[in-house]
Amino acid sequence: MPSKRMTTRKPASPPGYQTVGRATTITKEASGVCLRADSATVELTALAPDLFRVGFFPQGRAVDYGSVALVSRDWQSGPVTVGEDAEEVTLATSAATAHISLEPLRIGFDDHAGREFALDDPELGMGWFTAPGDLPGVDLANQSGTLGKPVRVYKQHRAGEHYFGCGERTGELDKTGSHQIFWNVDPPPGHTALQNNLYASIPFTLVLDAGRAWGFFLDSTTRVEFDLAHDDPQRAWFGASNGDLVYYVFCGPTPADVLARYTELTGHTPLPPLWALGNGQSRFSYETAEEVREIARSFRERDIPCDALYLDIDALDGYRVFTWNPAGFPDPEGLLAELRGMGFHTVSIVDAGVKVDEHYPVYTEGKERDLYCKTPQGNEYQNAVWPGICTFPDFTNPEARRWWGDQHRPLLDAGVEGIWADMNEPALFIPPNSTMPPDVIHPGGGKAQFHIQVHNAYGSLMAQAAREGSLRLRPERRPFIISRSGYAGIQRHALLWTGDNSSTWEHLTMSLAQLQNLGLSGVGWAGVDIGGFYGDATGELLARWTEFGIFQAFCRNHSEKQTRHQEPWLFGERYESICRAMLKLRQRLLPYLYTLFEECHRTGAPILRPLFWAYPEDKATYSMDDEFLCGDTLLVAPITRPGVEYRHVYLPAGSWFHLWTGARIDGPAHVLAHAPLGQPAIYVRANTALPLWPEMNYVGQREADPLTFVLHPCEGSGSATFYEDAGDGYEHLNGFYARRAITCEVEAGHIHVEIGEQEGALLHARRHTRVELREIASEPGAVHAGKAATWRYEPEQRRLIVDLPETAASHVIDVSMG
Ligand code: MIG
């Protein structure tokens, strides 16, 4: 694979690299120490028992942890013991100890189980480059020295360590042996796995070593590189092209622990409106209101689920953001109301560039208020994008963000319910696929910075402006923001979609690992364009992609101008039926997916996760990136090749039931799954309740009654939780939600199911909860489920169906076989 070239071992110390020498302690505080090493200030602080921060401010630079990635909060490290002798300073929390050896300054960690991690390389440690040398991106006249030199930390790469995450990546799940670049770009069309950096940058890696995880986050919005044992198998280095080196070490020890802390640091995915979990249909572009109506009607007539329609740039007036094309969309309000009446929600695109046009109020107002980026000479920075010559809001300026947010008013007033932030790397046309030059100035409303210093944050800041604007304008609704670009923490502003993929099997294959790594980087709400953007999809590709796509947190079909249209009914009856069936399954799964979103919101756990999330001790899972878990209950192994209907599936420990045949497999096992079109390889974990709604084509089409818990009982036990609320608004914060635990125990032919008492005050219009026990081989001898329950056994389906009245009280079902 691309960045895993064979290289000869590099010289120990790269040219111009200066490692820090001896350190002396300056101050010791309750949970941290400050040291001086040469002209550098170094701080090490315990923020939580399992979270440490290291700040390295070389050459007299001021201590500064300000960052767009972080949410502000008071950290509680718990008791910290600070120790010091002539050689070493230690900071011990209840979970781990940070060791700082003083001569020379080197930092490392161990936990109370004796595991060592994130150990500085003894020889190279932390340091800076005396000259930019051949490092890219720093060729900038900077007499005042604000930028600072390139900085780097070398860590030891221990033999068993595997690196994951790294944000938005193609290539395999496991990034060990690769070199990763963090610099947001709009890559040329048809990128392959050779394209390392894409639209979003999250300089975070989750490291697994023999079942135990730790994490590393380098918080810098300039160009960052991670060398994950690529240059040297015994080292990993993490560097920024200029400025300070501020990094965070997460001690784990489970992947879930790491993500919980990482999302506590950088923010949680907000709860989305429920409709946002349904299917979306997009095209670059639906060009007229009539075309949009036609698409909407087709979905309903053809009985194919769809909750959201996307309007791309041709719906704008000359590509001017926040306008409507008067010819194609003469009455947007009328159109959107009509769509709403049919159960659709409309999402509109907003690009970063503002057309330079003296007769365009958005442009003139931003200019009058001085909210745009500047050239080094102080003029408005301009470049070409879709509308022609454009200028670019300085989203680092809080006033510009507020102003931008307010510009969304006419869209929301017309009935738009979601904002699609595009071209926000920012992507520029001169030269093609470029971004702003490093010396463009972001005046920042007082704190001016060069573009290079904030480049990777630009997209996140634009998404933040859209989200905050939506919240101000529609405080009672949950914002729906989709962004192409982003930085660490983007998850609290927007969902991320992975930009312009291609309608190829290769891209379908790539997206599995891509979404797993995004999820491991805090972005649980993510998706790739189903069917692929560039190029012509085929029916088989779209069908297979939809089989996978319904398990993406974000499920949307989108395609490019001048390619074959890609709506699910355009490839013949056979493929249409498969897409219909799959999207109906997605819609039935919404209560499950919503439960996962709430978990993601609360804990940072991704929705679509690698197998190792649940099985970190099972090393076979580290490279199993052509399959994944959707939450705890489902394992999905998509087919990503044409003409293929069998594939290898690895099932980790536990008992699994094949969704379609009901066949039981006890893992760990390697199996050959038969997965003809329309029956993708999906497995359900034994004794784990899967909540399903009745079939629907959009959220709110009818009352979701009954709610069904599907269970596959099997000797042993399992549990699941279920969460629901109104699906929009904020009443859940006032206690109007429902959470319950569902357990299933099976012993000696006796099945015991318990639906725990409802936590939370949500009232239901629904009247029944159904429990559907599958793979029950024969009519049970006795079923006890309380007086108000009814049950029936379906011998052909091998299902026992128990209907319970919907109440907040707990329910118990006891089934005796034979
Ligand atoms: O330069 O708005 O990734 O989804 O359809 C292309 C047109 C601009 C890029 C987005 C794509 C969108 C397209 N946009």
The hetero compounds bound to this protein are: ligand MIG
Radius of gyration: 27 Å
Q: Give the integer mean of the pLDDT values.
A: 96
Order of strands across the widest beta sheet?
2-3-4-5-20-17-16-13
Summarize the biggest pleated sheet: 8 strands, antiparallel
Report low-confidence residues grouped into runs of 5 or more.
1-8
- Number-wise, the strands total 50
Return the structural class: alpha+beta
What shape does the CA trace take?
Answer: globular
- Estimate what percentage of residues fall within beta strands: 25-35%
Straight-line N-to-C gap = 56 Å
Helix segment tally = 12
- Helix content, binned percent: 10-25%
Structural write-up:
There is one protein chain. The protein has 818 residues and is of the alpha+beta class. The protein contains twelve helices and 50 strands. The strands form ten sheets. An eight-stranded antiparallel β-sheet has the order 2-3-4-5-20-17-16-13. α5 packs across α8 (458-473) and α10 runs parallel beside α11 (573-588). The structure holds ligand MIG.
Task: Briefly say what this structure is.
This protein is α+β, with helices and mostly antiparallel strands and 818 residues long. It is built from twelve helices and 50 strands.
